[in-house]
Design brief:
Belongs to the INSIG family. With about 200 residues, the chain is mainly α. It is about 75% helix and about 0% strand.
């Protein structure tokens, strides 16, 4: 049916967004070393474990489809800043927050984490402001941090200078803002169908 076809299209778009963001953000995280070895720029883009981008893509598809479903279930259609220009600004701010985590030098990691937490909440307030968005963002941050912690603990993945158990303390902030960003993309994609076919169940 056209509904299933549209659902598949949305899933593929969200998966692609997740993969691209994973590659871009990984490049930002390793960029401090890039200046020392400029000939390895291409290598650093794919220096992350091969399975990370597909996992991020799958997570983006799930989160992006979940947001409009939760909105519909709660009977709270998301009407705040529903246009593509706002969504693209949200993506830009999310990338900026990641850039800050990689490039800015703070006196200590607590200061960095608090700054990124404030920026992440600012992103939610500026582009979302829904209870479902806040709740899902916090849930995503908790679950994603827990999964990352387990992966690092089991030696599957590692961070260069962990400061919070086995990971970086600012990671939950990145996951939170990422969830809000992908959720906004998912909502916008769902709204495209609403506008072209009238209100349909998500």
């Amino acid at each position: 049916t056209s509904w299933h076809h549209h659902l598949l299209q949305r899933s593929l778009v969200l998966f692609s967004v997740g993969v691209v963001l994973a590659l871009v953000l990984n490049l930002l995280q390793v960029q401090r070393n890039v200046t020392l070895f400029p000939e390895e720029v291409i290598a650093t883009i794919f220096s992350s474990a091969w399975w990370v981008p597909p996992c991020c893509g799958t997570a983006a598809a799930v989160v992006g489809l979940l947001y409009p479903c939760i909105d519909s279930h709660l009977g709270e259609p998301h009407k705040f800043k529903r246009e593509w220009a706002s969504v693209m600004r949200c993506v830009a701010v999310f990338v900026g927050i990641n850039h800050a985590s990689a490039k800015l030098d703070f006196a200590n990691n607590v200061q960095l984490s608090l700054t990124l937490a404030a920026l992440s909440l600012g992103l939610w307030w500026t582009f979302d402001r829904s209870r479902s968005g806040l709740g899902l963002g916090i849930t995503i941050a908790f679950l994603a941090t827990l999964i990352t912690q387990l992966l690092v603990y089991n030696g599957v993945y590692q961070y260069t200078s962990p400061d919070f158990l086995y990971i970086r303390s600012w990671l939950p902030c990145i996951f939170f803002s990422g969830g809000v960003t992908v959720g906004n993309i998912g909502r916008q994609l769902a709204m495209v169908r609403e506008l072209s076919h009238g209100r349909q169940p998500l």
